[in-house]
């Protein structure tokens, strides 16, 4: 997404509106969990004041991330609000102000950066998708829920349980 410096200068300090769909699908090539990302909708304003440019924009989109439990695809909708500061002069020495070289301001790297910063650490699929994709047994193992575990008697205590059952039967027969 490119903004032309000349157009910003001609606006004489008035905000210039922009709205565009931006393809940032190359984020999937990086070593992150993004499996797919559709083109994002970017809209906002850019204002030039002397040599400084302030861009206030919002990024909306959907990315596909793996479920933290089952690794199935989970669509994650996001909205990111960003404010970026730029300058056309190299005399500006602040960390948060980016230098613009040339006559075009390319917002695409800043859009990608803001999307990556807002990416969640983990996402979970809805319960139906989890149930459909959860393995319950494999080679030499079986999934046991907490409820099944509490109902199951420890094999080491099985004989004790039968002994207690026998004693309670004897008590009942004496009455």
Automatic annotation (TrEMBL):
Domain of life where this protein originates: Bacteria
Pfam (any one): YceD
Classification via InterPro entries: YceD
Ranges of Basic and acidic residues composition bias in the record: 149-164
Region of interest (Disordered), residue spans: 146-175
Protein name: YceD family protein
Organism: Gracilibacillus caseinilyticus
